[in-house]
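Dear Dr. H.,

I hope your travels went smoothly. While you were away I took the liberty of generating a structure for the chain from your last submission, since the lab meeting agenda had it listed for discussion. I wanted you to have the full record in hand beforehand rather than looking at slides cold. The sequence, exactly as received, is reproduced here:
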Amino acid sequence: MRVCTKDFQIPNTKVLIPEGSTIIIPVAAIMKDSDLFPDPEKFDPERFTGANKSKINRNAYIPFGLGPRICPGNNFLFELKSFRPFDFSNFKYKFGLFYRDETGTR
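The corresponding predicted structure, in token form, is as follows:
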């Protein structure tokens, strides 16, 4: 939710949002709008590849939000992109934690 800090006329409409109004941005509805995303219900990760990047409306694709309250996970995404493959064969997983198996057994 956001609060409008000054009167705002939505471009190309007669709609005026008065100062002090609470604004809710329906991100899920935007992401499922077939005018913005062809076949929005289909799982299609290819639509977000570099080759298709120019086809995405920058104002419609906002999975992490916008502005000063953007989701901190946005920065984590860029860290994941630079993640290098790592050999986890010497690690075990137990109770939600990874730990190194020093015994050599798996």
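Two observations you may find useful: The chain has a mean pLDDT of 77. Residues 2-100 form one domain.

With kind regards,
E. W.
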